[in-house]
Write a structure and sequence with these properties.
about 30% helix, alpha/beta
Length: about 500
């Protein structure tokens, strides 16, 4: 079997690259087929990104629709898909396309926590969402190729959604056993684990314990091919570890990867390989069919953004709107008060109709809202840490041109007086009463300032005590979506 794999990864919402990538795919497919080769088209995950409006407003379905139109035959869930939208949205995303959406090690937290039955490991009884798959079998003229997909472990990050990424090794072992039982002759790993470049530099990574493609190659020599993503590694030529060939095509659609592998018809072993990257710059023509598909997808997503959600009785400047957002958080969280960084509000609202686009532009980003029972002393600590944070005056995400987080916004029942330069809270009153250091209050905020992070000089604002629980409110919705619901209920602000 002579196989050509065309692949890309870590698109992160750069949908405008897809028509160009498809032009290259058509060209390379024609060349490969003229050479008598079978062709696969694979995506290495993270095609989604909340920073791109088409991806955000459709929770990834816009980009998946274009991937399907291009003929992608399998993808793996990346953190760009798993980290933002929750189980329900992840399931809808997986079910929205006809190709396999793989995530063998992304599992239901309830299944992880239940005792195992019949010697079956608890973490494999149920994947994170209906529609996800652990493995797939691709038929290639009678040659059965098995594909398993795994994604990088993010300890604790997915738990608020009700699922968890577990160590890939167990999922790979069980996936391999299942595929061999189906008679596959070779196993391909579609990976969103990342791959260091070069492999010997592994010890220099910030977290050497992270399990990456080179570890898979050493631990699972029966996997002959790894097509990867996550580390944004542009492998000009594949890495070979033992008998495993590893390929990855950079990021943002800047390259199309081509990997030619010759497989022994009887054993499935890789007998030869050759791989390279094909630049996909502005000089590559747009494929008209995929460009037209993209425009239709953007038009449909645009209609979602242009939906009317309420009205503003008068102009609402940014600073005023930030405090109104705090009112929304307090009400939605059934809290005693709400405080969050006003810089999460980028702009105000004009008097008149409010569309979802207006709100999305005023409250971009992927921050979730949270609530917890905390002491007055912890509220004081949070406010003073907000005032002293370097992000109050500088961007916390300069790669995405995020503005500084500015001063604290607060709900209408709160009065704050502080010395911002000294980072000192001078006065805090709630419902007209001085903040009581010993009293427990239900505080609403965002996960940026009110989270389970502890003992971190940058992100531990509250200083949680043992046993305190932080709730993520409306887990599948981020700040702008929560405020949208609040405005709809009120009709106007």
């Amino acid at each position: 079997m002579n196989l050509t794999i065309l692949h890309f990864n870590d698109l992160h919402g750069r949908l405008e690259q897809l028509p160009r990538l498809y032009t290259l795919m058509r060209r390379e497919r024609a060349k490969a087929e003229a050479e008598g080769r079978r062709v696969l088209l694979l995506d290495g995950g993270d095609s989604s990104d909340r920073a791109r409006w088409e991806s955000d407003v459709t929770k990834g379905r816009a980009n998946f629709s274009v991937l399907e139109a291009m003929g992608v035959q399998a993808t793996v869930i990346g953190n760009g898909e798993a980290l933002h939208w929750g189980r329900g949205a992840l399931g809808r995303l997986a079910r929205s396309v006809g190709f396999p959406v793989l995530a063998a090690n992304l599992v239901d937290t309830a299944a992880v926590n239940q005792p195992a039955a019949e010697n079956q490991p608890a973490d494999e009884r149920q994947l994170a969402a209906p529609g996800l798959r652990a493995t797939a079998v691709i038929e290639l003229d009678g040659f059965r190729l098995g594909v398993v997909g795994v994604t990088q472990v993010y300890p604790g990050h997915y738990d608020r959604y009700g699922f968890r990424s577990v160590h890939p090794a167990g999922a790979l072992r069980r996936g391999g056993e299942a595929l061999r039982a189906e008679g596959v002759r070779q196993i391909l790993l579609l990976s969103h684990l990342g791959c260091p470049m070069p492999p010997e530099s592994k010890a220099e990574w910030p977290d050497p314990a992270v399990y990456t493609d080179d570890d898979v190659a050493r631990d699972f020599p029966e996997i002959g091919i790894i097509v990867g993503g996550h580390s944004h590694t542009a492998l000009e030529t594949p890495i070979v570890i033992g008998g495993t060939v590893i390929a990855q095509a950079g990021d943002y659609g800047r390259w199309l990867g081509r990997l030619d592998v010759d497989l022994d018809d009887a054993t499935g072993a890789v007998t030869a390989h050759r791989g390279w990257l094909i630049p996909c710059g502005a000089g590559v023509p747009l494929d008209p069919t995929i460009q037209g598909t993209l425009e239709l997808v953007q038009e449909e997503a645009g209609r979602l953004l242009d939906a009317w959600i309420g009205s503003a009785r008068e102009d609402v400047p940014q600073a005023v709107f930030a405090n109104r957002v705090a009112d929304a958080l307090r009400e939605v969280c059934a809290a005693d008060l709400a405080i969050f960084f006003s810089g999460f509000v980028y702009r105000g609202l004009k008097a008149g109709p409010i569309t979802r686009r207006d709100l999305y532009q005023a409250l971009p980003g992927a921050t979730h809202i949270s609530a917890a029972e905390v002491s007055g002393a912890q509220i004081r600590r949070m406010v003073e840490r907000m005032l002293r944070s370097p992000y109050r005056t500088q961007s916390f995400n300069p790669q995405r041109n995020a503005p500084p987080l500015r001063l604290p916004a607060h709900s209408a029942n709160v009065r704050l007086r502080y010395d911002a330069e000294a980072g000192k809270l001078l006065e805090c009153a709630i419902d007209g009463q001085p903040l009581d250091p010993a009293r427990r209050y239900r505080l609403a905020s965002t996960l940026f300032t009110l989270s389970t992070v502890r003992n971190d000089p940058e992100y531990d604002y509250v200083g949680l005590e043992e046993g305190q629980v932080v709730e993520t409110i409306q887990v599948e919705n981020v700040l702008w979506e929560v405020v949208e619901g609040w405005i709809k209920e009120r009709g106007s602000i």
